[in-house]
Amino acid sequence: MNGSLPIVRDVAALRAAAAAWRAGGKSVALVPTMGALHEGHLSLIRAAKARCERVVASLFVNPRQFAPQEDFDRYPRNEAGDAALLASAGCDLLFAPDRAAMYPDGFATSVIVANVSTPLEGEFRPHFFAGVATVVTKLLVQCSPDAAFFGEKDYQQLLVIRRLARDLDIPVEIVGCETVREPDGLAMSSRNAYLAPAQRAIAVELSLALKQAAAAIRAGRPIAETETDMRARLAAAGFDAVDYAAACDAETLAPMADLSRPGRLLVAAWIGKTRLIDNWPV
Ligand code: PAF
């Protein structure tokens, strides 16, 4: 327990709690997280609580979605602080398994979602979506929620999760929630904690470049030139590298052709050792 928030660490206890709620006629929501919670996560908890009577949050820093050279070891961890924040936002149960509970000896299964996983993050972090899809599938099967909540900040991830739930006939509503931003527009992210003050000042340019590009495309600037403009603006602002700055079809993530269908601008860029992503509708 943490304050009023019960914590379970094994799948049987999670299943028992969710089954008891369902037997009592209560709807159940799941909010998967890797901890290091901020206002963006808490907005997911509040949205889940508005939709369902009981809310489970999971906290698991999933090793399978980090490549060996990535930040798994330095990823911020603060379970007690996270539990207190979850309780204050109305969460009813925290599922915080350890690695052995999620990936017991002999674990050999991977969930691969084709097509929508391939571009963008799929190109620059080829291991990432198999790790996400595998752990999210497990969490959905373990908890059997009526609805599961994910932030649009990880827009491609949201599309991948929608696809896997549909393809695997998992009876859950996948709910995407709007990105929560700092007052200057920077998307909230657990990785913002890595930024030194001078880097934080550069980071805000990500959302400004997206906003400007969306307005430019709506005003008729050619899409390819707008993508080049975004890269140039980020480089000029002090980003050390831009993995992608792309205008895509909002549903398929194929390159955006024109304004006849909803589009999404997506960027990933590095400041020092920190990689930030963001996206914007167009
Ligand atoms: O977005 C995240 O925090 C993670 O990718 C998720 C969905 C919790 C899976 O580990």
What does this structure look like?
The protein is of the alpha/beta class and 282 residues long. The protein has two domains: 171 residues, Rossmann fold, CATH 3.40.50; 87 residues, Pantoate--beta-alanine Ligase, Chain: A,domain 2 (2-Layer Sandwich), CATH 3.30.1300.10. It is 39% helix and 19% strand. It is built from ten helices and nine strands. It has a six-stranded parallel β-sheet with strand order 1-4-3-2-5-6, with helices on both faces. Helix 7 links the parallel strand 5 and strand 6. It is globular and about 55 Å long. The N and C termini lie far apart (44 Å). Bound molecules: pantoate (PAF). The site of pantoate has 10 residues, from strand 2 and helix 6. Pantoate binds next to strand 2 and helix 6.
Quick synopsis:
Helix content is 39%, strand content 19%.
Helices and strands in order, then pairings?
Layout: E1 7-8, H1 11-23, E2 28-33, H2 39-51, E3 54-59, H3 79-89, E4 93-95, H4 99-102, H5 121-124, H6 128-143, E5 147-151, H7 155-167, E6 173-177, H8 197-203, H9 205-218, H10 223-237, E7 241-249, E8 263-271, E9 274-281
Parallel strand pairs: 1-4, 2-3, 2-5, 3-4, 5-6
Antiparallel strand pairs: 7-8, 8-9
Helix pairs in contact: 6-7, 9-10
What is the number of helical segments per DSSP (H or I, 4+ residues)?
Answer: 10
Architecture of the largest domain in CATH?
A: 3-Layer(aba) Sandwich
Determine the fraction of residues in helical runs and give it as a percent range: 25-40%
Q: Kindly provide the name of the CATH class of the largest domain.
A: Alpha Beta
Determine the strand fraction and express it as a percent band: 15-25%
CATH superfamily of the largest domain: HUPs
| Bound compounds | pantoate
Query: Which H/E pattern describes the elements?
Result: EHEHEHEHHHEHEHHHEEE
- Shape summary: globular
Q: Give the N-to-C terminal Cα separation.
A: 44 Å
CATH topology of the largest domain: Rossmann fold
What is the spatial order of strands in the main beta sheet? 1-4-3-2-5-6
Q: What is the rounded Rg?
A: 19 Å
Described by strand count, sense and barrel closure, the largest sheet is: 6 strands, parallel
Domain unit count: 2
State the secondary-structure class: alpha/beta
* Number of separate strands: 9
Q: What is the arithmetic mean of pLDDT? A: 97
- Runs in which pLDDT lies below 50 for 5 or more consecutive residues are none
